[in-house]
Design goal:
It is a single chain. The protein is an alpha/beta fold. The protein has two domains: 122 residues, 3-Layer(aba) Sandwich (Rossmann fold); 70 residues, no CATH class. It is built from five helices and nine strands, in the order E-E-E-H-E-E-H-H-H-E-H-E-E-E. The strands form two sheets. It has a six-stranded mixed sheet, with helices on both faces. Strands 2-1-4 form a three-stranded antiparallel sheet, covered by helices on one side. The longest helix has 16 residues. The chain is globular. The two termini are 21 Å apart.
């Protein structure tokens, strides 16, 4: 088991956003969570990755997490290369491994030509590609994606799914949160988060 979510509850004031949310994931699984705006999807992800603490319940993760949030977590006045190097240092990736991984990801997601550009000067779609590449940089065993398709063009969307299938073959579990999932056949299971509960 790579992820175990047990009876998670979270409130903000009198608003109970999450109520007894529980599910488990094994390696190579692809799960989706859908729900309306304000349903608690991003709150759940932030609890899983450790950014927020739940009011009750437990999270168990067995492996490296890669997290691609809805709002890009990049240093806007640094270049693409500088952002990649910063996160590689945070992940404690050795230099040769970093060079290999970063070159491969920049090539695959087609933003190598922007490597010397400051992030602030790039389009939202290109920033999201970088955001995704950084989440993949350290070869995560659990990849968590919050609205990953925002800003993707059709080519990037297709490349994303090809890469996701390769990750699953390597044993990586993937959790996708989105307002809408149209290709449910890609997923092993899709949950609906409604009134703080998964159905």
């Amino acid at each position: 088991m790579i992820l175990k979510v047990e009876n998670i509850g979270k409130s903000f004031g009198k608003n109970k956003v999450l109520k007894n949310v529980s599910f488990e994931m094994d390696p190579s699984l692809l799960y989706g969570i859908v729900g309306e705006n304000g349903s608690g999807k991003s709150t759940l992800l932030k609890i899983i990755v450790g950014e927020w603490k739940p009011d009750k319940g437990n999270i168990s993760v067995a492996g490296r997490i890669g997290y691609c949030p809805q709002n890009v977590l990049l240093f806007s006045h640094l270049t693409v290369d500088e952002n990649m190097r910063y996160f590689a240092a945070a992940y404690n990736i050795e230099k040769l491994e970093f060079i290999s991984r970063s070159e491969s990801l920049m090539d695959y997601f087609n933003f190598k030509k922007f490597r010397k550009e400051r992030v602030v000067n790039l389009s939202g779609g290109t920033q999201q590609k970088i955001n995704l590449a950084i989440a993949l940089l350290h070869r995560p065993q659990l990849l968590i994606l919050d609205e990953p398709y925002n800003g993707f063009d059709w080519d990037t969307y297709q490349r994303f799914w090809i890469y996701a299938n390769q990750l699953r073959e390597e044993g990586c579990a993937i959790l996708v949160v989105a307002h809408l999932i149209t290709e449910k056949e890609r997923f092993d299971r899709v949950f609906n988060l409604t009134e703080g509960e998964l159905t």
